[in-house]
Amino acid sequence: MYLKMENKKELRNWLDKMNLSHPLVIAGPCSAETEEQVLTIAHALKETDATVFRAGIWKPRTRPGNFEGVGALGLKWLQRAKEETGLLTTTEVANAHHVDLALKHDVDILWIGARTTVSPFIIQEIADALKGTDKICLIKNPVNPDLSLWLGAVERFYKSDIPNLGVIHRGFSTYEKTRYRNNPEWQIAIDLQNRFPDLPLILDPSHIAGRRDIIFELCQTALDLNYDGMMVETHHDPDNAWSDASQQITPETLRQMTVDLRIRKEEGDAVEFKNKLATMRTQIDVIDHQLIEMLGKRMKIADAIGKLKLDNNVAILQSKRWNEILGRMILEGEEHQLSEEFILRIYKAIHQESINHQKKVNNLKEESLH
Ligand code: PEP
Ligand code: MN
Q: How far does the centroid of ligand 2 lie from the alpha carbon of residue 30, in Å?
């Protein structure tokens, strides 16, 4: 089914028509709060690379009691922001009623939130409400790391004769606490990009980061992976924003950021080769980063086992268990075209590091006894 969308250059017509000399920048507050706030931010964004002004009107909150958005009233403020600044506008729609109101107020781009993409019923309702529209629709990844669910939503829109589509990568929810609010899981977006190279891909660093200080590095990784743009939450007074305060940046920070980001966007064969190479190198960097993270996690568990063995007076080295692991990994390695020799070398090194860790746990315990 997805095949119908593959190699469809026209998926990016809407972006090409914008004729931008830089990646697409969508910016604006998490939520529209007051008319004055909307207009202040929109005017400040005129000094940046932003082409599209974003503001949430209806806010999906994980728990009730937080600010749930100003509602339809805010759509008038968006209209006014567009008239005064010439920026295109975008807001999140989460049901057919939102779609109706957004269309009536001439919102240019509609985005589908992460909590909506998880539900095929709601996605279908929205796709039906938008049937045949020439509005641009951007679909955020679902909250859970599931590429099919994400693509399924894109496909429902495509089947509903909505040709101007794009996707927004906003990271994935995990139970485990990491440095991110939502784990990027870059490989999911890379897989999507490999399958649909013409579907515009936009990064939402704000919801991945959940904090200001790593927005720049996230945007740089996305540009190195050849993303088409970014949607950055921007507020004139971030600390006092009514929602997502800790992750919003000022228009001035955004302006400086777009100056500092490295962009590879020249034309020509040699450049195309370099772009491809750089994209693949970034893919490798992403995986290397994951490898180290996983090894770190593995060693933490080894530490805990070391402590358990010590408390129970069991020897650190247990050859039977080690041989079992090795046998299993050699077989798994074969499935991934990895030679036995390679697996042996890697696992010997990992095993040695685990033993060193466990010895360290032992020594610490002994030291504290003295
Ligand atoms: C937002 O963009 O403000 C938002 C609610 O995003 P998400 O759907 O990615 O959580
Ligand atoms: Mn937000």
A: 4
